[in-house]
Amino acid sequence: MVNQTGISKLARLRELMKITTINGVEKKGIQAFILNYGDSHQSEYLTDRDKRLSFLSGFTGSRGTIIVTNEKALLWTDGRYFLQAINEFDPPQDWTLMKEGVLGTPNQFEWLNLNLPPKSTVGVDINVISYTDWVSMYNNLNNKGHVLIPLEENLVDKIWDDRPIPVLNSIVPHKLEYSGKKAKDKIENCQKLMKENGVSFLVISALDEVAYLLNWRGSDIPYNPVFFAYIVLESENIHIFLDKTRLTKEAEEQLKNEGIIPIYHSYESILNFLKENSIATDENRVWISSGSSSALHCACGSHVYRAYSPIGLMKSIKNETEIEGMKAAHIRDGVALVKYFAWLEDEITNKNNKTITEISGAEQLEKFRQEQELYVGVSFTTISSSGDHAAIIHYHPTSASDKLITDKEVYLCDAGAQFLDGTTDTTRTWHFGTPTDYERECFTRVFKGQCFLNMAIFPNMIKGNYLDTLARKSLWDVGLDYIHGTGHGVGSYLNVHEFPIGISWKPMPDDPGVQAGVFLSNEPGFYEDGKFGIRLENIELVVKANSKYNFNNRNYLTFETVTLVPIQTSFLDLSLLTDAEIDYINKYHAKCLEILKPLLQGSENTQALSWLIKQTKPISK
Question: How many Cβ atoms sit within 10 Å of the Cβ of residue 41?
Answer without folding.
Answer: 25
